[in-house]
Each structure stands twice: as structure tokens, then as C-alpha cells.
TrEMBL record:
Record-annotated active site: K198 (proton donor)
Family: Belongs to the homoserine dehydrogenase family.
Protein name: Homoserine dehydrogenase
Annotated ACT domain residues: 344-418
Superkingdom, natural source: Bacteria
Gene3D superfamilies, per database record: 3.30.70.260, Dihydrodipicolinate Reductase, domain 2 (3.30.360.10), NAD(P)-binding Rossmann-like Domain (3.40.50.720)
Residues engaged in binding L-homoserine: E183
EC number assigned by the record: 1.1.1.3
PANTHER family tied to this protein: HOMOSERINE DEHYDROGENASE (PTHR43331)
Enzyme class: oxidoreductase
Pathway: Amino-acid biosynthesis; L-methionine biosynthesis via de novo pathway; L-homoserine from L-aspartate: step 3/3; Amino-acid biosynthesis; L-threonine biosynthesis; L-threonine from L-aspartate: step 3/5
Single Gene Ontology BP annotation: methionine biosynthetic process
Amino acid sequence: MIKVGIIGVGTVGTSVANILKDNADVISARAGRDIVVKSGVVKNLAKDRGLDITLTDNVDDILNDDEIDVVVELMGGVEEPFDVVKRALKSGKAVVTANKALLAYHRYELQEIAQDLPFEYEASVAGGIPIINALRDGLSANHIESMMGIMNGTCNYMMTKMTNEGVDYDAILKESQDLGYAEADPSFDVGGYDAAHKLLILASIAYGIDAKPEDILIEGIENVTQDDISFAKEFGYAIKLLGIAKKTGSEVELRVHACLIKKDEMIAKIDGVMNGISVVGDKVGETLYYGPGAGGDATASAVVANIIDIARSGKSTPMLGFDRPMEGDTLTLKPVEQIESKYYLRINVSDKAGVLARVTKLFEDNNISIETILQRPADNISANLLISTHVAVEKDVQKMIKDLEAQEFVHAQPVMIRIV
Ligand SMILES: NC(=O)c1ccc[n+]([C@@H]2O[C@H](COP(=O)([O-])OP(=O)(O)OC[C@H]3O[C@@H](n4cnc5c(N)ncnc54)[C@H](OP(=O)(O)O)[C@@H]3O)[C@@H](O)[C@H]2O)c1
């Protein structure tokens, strides 16, 4: 029998306890032994959780319990769970977590501390989708050429509603908060940080790259308006918040931002709160993973799968997928300013003769070639220019945006969305 201690019996922790009980028949048959929750830790002991497990508000009750084999960390946060899981590993316990923020900052230190002890985290990326398993085991024969995905259900829900129902950003944000999809402080989701944490975890497994959130390009969906959506529709695009990893030579670019993506791409068709990730391997070609990225039961399904794996073998594949560094050139992170992409810009300008020519001259001066231009009236003194470009270099585009901001005929900060 394997005994489990759950630190954090909230949305996901409660589902883990319930699944281990409800599906005990299939779980024990698959694991080859029974798996039971011995106890759980919460902050508020007075709250009824409808569970028949022993609860405590002291993590030491689990960390010092020699009968507990697996510690499941589901409390959230970064430094407090880091301390808790380090102590669990040091006392010889296996660890399972769903905590992407913890891993975005501390995965390599945890790998070092864990050594041969199992440390599993399937639920930390895309909730119920077994993407870590796929990348670390199923695709381990491949060099990974690229990964691109919808890794935040809240943003995808908002973009889908804005596209399909013409709802404005502020209205759909409020609706998402009312439905419980977005937090009271939504900046972590809509600012792209949650997706970035997940992308960094995947990048370690795919490329062995040790990067932190501050090392990569992270932008959100806060500036997307109905003007942008109407441009996207007119030119056959959807707008999505995507996490992108792309290997070119010995460099890997990692970025999270809103994207215009052709409507017929598989990723563009993923709507609502669902997540989807496309992974291209040099031998397998493109593979696509789709499913629920959040929710108690969907997330706990991945947590319990990790516990079953630990119960089966006691030793798992290397935590971040590599048993030792690759020989030869190691991959490095591509500097943000060298990223190449097509771009879309929305520029609010004076509605006067000669302005369009001055705008296009600034594009030319910065080596940026225009593909399409639309002009839409904004109010009685200004118009929005909606411009898409051919492939350009990020640093040139950033410089041109600064140049545009300095012009008296530009009324607001230009908005830029990259095209994939
Ligand atoms: N929810 C999802 O859909 C989802 C999806 C993927 C990953 N995750 C990750 O899973 C983790 C848990 O998420 P959740 O949604 O289940 O969170 P949650 O509902 O807020 O639950 C957190 C639990 O931890 C307990 N807790 C927090 N700090 C504590 C402390 N200092 N001492 C003791 N107990 C403490 C809370 O106790 P009280 O109940 O007494 O407050 C609560 O039971 C997070 O890392 C999250 O990022 C969640």
C-alpha cells in the first residue's frame, strides 16, 4: 500500500482525494497496490470539505510522518511550497505537484535535490492533458523543432467570446471573473505570465533550457480590441494568446503573446476554455494535444496518474527529461530583439492628407515592408490604420513604434500583434 499526504486540500486537492476513493478499483489494479490518502493540510480547519480524511493545519504532521510515501503539494505559491517540497524530498518522500509557478522558478534546484526520488508535475502544464508525459517519454526520440499552444484557458475563453460575439475586452473580463475563470486580480492570466510559466517547463523538457520568466518575451491580451478582431476576420486570422518555442540552429526562442494565426491552423480552431498544444518533432512530425487545461477533476486526473506511476515503479524518468546534458553545442535562448516575425500594427492617426505617406515612410526607414493596409474611421478627427507586414526583425519593429510615438499625428500608443 502507498500512503499519500496532500498539502493543500482546495479545488484540486479535494478532487485528488475523491478520485483516489471513487476510482480505487481501477487505480489499485493499474498501480498493483492500493493508494490511500492518510492526511491533508489546510489553512482553515473549520471549513467543511465533504471528505473523510484526517485534516491538520500543520505541514509537519505530514512531513514528519514516516508512514507517508508521497507528498502531493497543492497549496499554490512559490517560496512556501518550495520549502515544503524540499523538506519532503530531504526526508525521502516522493513529490507530486501541480504548481507551475514553483517549477517556473525552482525546477532545476528541485531536480538537483530530488536526484533519484520521484518528482512529478504532469498537472502543472495544461491541467488534464498529458503533455509532459508525451514530451518526456512518448517523443523522447526526437529533436523538438517547435511547440506552440494555447496554455491559458481564461485568455482563450475571452478571445473566443470577443471574436464570436463581438463583446469588448472589459465586458468579457468581467464575465470571466463572474464565472470564476478569471481571478479578482486577472493580470497573471491576461498578462501572459501563467502561460509563460508553463512554456518554461515545457522548454526544459524539450530543449534542456534553464530560463526564468524574466528572461523571455511575455505579453498579454489586454490591448486587443474589436478593431483588431475585425482585421483578423477580414484577412482569415483568429487572435489567440500563444506560448511559442522555436529552435533555429543552436538557438531557441521562447515567447508568449497575442498572435494572429491563420484560421485553418489546428490551434486556431481551439475555442473556449480548452487548451491545445502542437509539438513538432524532427522524426514524428506534428502532433497535437487537446483537452481541459484546468478544473478540479481534470487537473487531479493528472496528479493521480503521477501517484500511480510512483506506486508502480518507485523510480521515474529523469525529472526534466534529460539524464545528462547533450554532447556538442548546447542550445541557448535567442535574444528577444532578434526574433523574426510578421507583424500587425494598429496606429491611431490624424485623419488628414499626407499622414498615410508619412507613416509608410517610417516603415521604409526601419526596413519594414508592408503587406496590407486598411483604414478605419475612429472618431471625427482620427482614423485607425491597420497594417500587416512581411517578415521583419523585432528590434526594427520596436524602434519604429518609438518613432511613431514621437509623431504629432499619432494620437495613441500603437498596438502591435505578431502574426504566426
Ligand atoms: N484549479 C485548477 O484548475 C488548477 C489547474 C492546474 C494547476 N493548478 C495548481 O494547483 C495548485 C492548487 O490549486 P487550487 O486551485 O486547488 O488552489 P486552492 O483551491 O486555493 O487550494 C489551495 C489549498 O491550499 C491550502 N493552503 C494554502 N496555503 C496554505 C498554508 N500556508 N498552509 C496550509 N494550507 C494552505 C488552502 O487551505 P484553505 O482551503 O484552508 O484555504 C487550500 O486548501 C496551484 O499551484 C495551482 O496553480 C490548479
